[in-house]
Amino acid sequence: MIAKNRSQVLEKFSGIAGTLVNQSVEEFKNKGGMVIGYFCSFIPEEIFIAAGLLAFRMRGTGSESTERADEYFTSNNCSFPRHCFSLALIGKYNFLDGLVVGASCDTTRYVYDNWKKSPMKTPFVYLLGFPHVSGEMQAGYYRKELVNFKSALEEHFNVTITDDKLCEAISLCNETRELQRKIYDMRKSDNPPITGSEMVSVMVAGLSMPKEEYNAELKQLISDLEIIPAQNNEYQARLMVVGSCGDDDIMCTIAEEQGAIVVTDHTCFGGKLKYGSVNEDGSDPLQALANYHVLTRPFCAKVGGAYPLRRKVIIEAAREFKVDGVLGQRLGCCDTWGGELYALKDDLRDAGLPSLMIEREYVPDSQGQLATRVQAFIETIRR
């Protein structure tokens, strides 16, 4: 919820993040543009942009049930892909001209198989291979996957993706990351000008609209936040949210309703997106993208060997943003994040950072129990 007298950009972002088909998507489609959905933040948006496509990050916004998807998935599959797939089955994703699924976790990987088997007639459905170990060899492997992916896009959409177009797209997305980092840096202050729940809308909106438009709005938002008086200084604790997904503001809203403020995060729809930049030297843009996603960014919990970097990034951010505690969240039946949070809890304790690890469904049956646990945690760490 955006308070009165706040930035109009925040209001716009909140509206975009709260629905699927927003005005920016409609305008892009009305001009003859094509929209392609994708799962996983490790699929480079730059390739879509270089192809003249609008990349739309798949999410379950507005879903109330997985009933339709449960015809294809079992109940012990992660609820995030099931909610997304349910929305697709009832026509909420009919605006898509294509779908790209990353071979990441097993349940998301099954979305590709089930999408192909379902009655949906999406013109282009592609499975992009991922390395499951982080290293130089794996970055080379991922470049080969990106070459094949680029060729498939060119053939299906009758476009040519040149190195120059890729370099322009890389520069555009690097600008996005830099602007996002500026807003995150504002949250380091004792009186942050933006709440955690508002920041979720800012990040999710960027995955649902053209990047040029988004960057222009980010610049305006930064100007707004520099002059609008912040009203977030009467908090009991500064928190960091860590875990899977992050396309909703449930955990941030619960924490902030209990008197805390979320000042940073490490989630797939949030802080992980702004980390680092892609090399812009232009000699091999596909290799630059592969290196960025496999070697530079803290790869997600499904990737072996990448935990030390994730741990380092999380602990450094917690200290940099002066957090009093860390909220970890995993969706039910997510084995990878289950193991991740188990290890992270001990490392956070050794670093002197209190933490609370929570398991929840994508659409919780009741937020009351979550609120009770978060409130009790805040009471133990309150300033």
Q: pLDDT average, as an integer?
A: 92
- Largest sheet, spatial ordering of strands: 2-1-3-4
Radius of gyration: 20 Å
CATH architecture of the domain at 23-161: 3-Layer(aba) Sandwich
Could you describe the largest sheet, including whether it forms a barrel?
Answer: 4 strands, parallel
Uncertain segments are: none
Beta fraction: 5-15%
Helix content: 40-55%
Supply the helix-strand structural class.
alpha/beta
The SSE order reads HHEHEHEHEHHHHEHEHHEHEH
Structure summary, number of beta strands: 8
The shape is globular
CATH topology of the domain at 23-161: Rossmann fold
Number of contiguous helices? 14
The level-1 CATH class of the domain at 23-161: Alpha Beta
User: N- to C-terminal separation?
Assistant: 25 Å
List the helices and strands and how they pair.
Elements: H1 8-17, H2 23-30, E1 35-38, H3 45-50, E2 54-57, H4 79-89, E3 98-102, H5 106-117, E4 125-128, H6 136-157, H7 163-186, H8 196-205, H9 211-227, E5 238-243, H10 250-257, E6 261-266, H11 285-296, H12 307-320, E7 325-331, H13 335-350, E8 355-360, H14 367-381
Parallel strand pairs: 1-2, 1-3, 3-4, 5-6, 5-7, 7-8
Helix pairs in contact: 1-8, 6-11, 7-9, 10-14
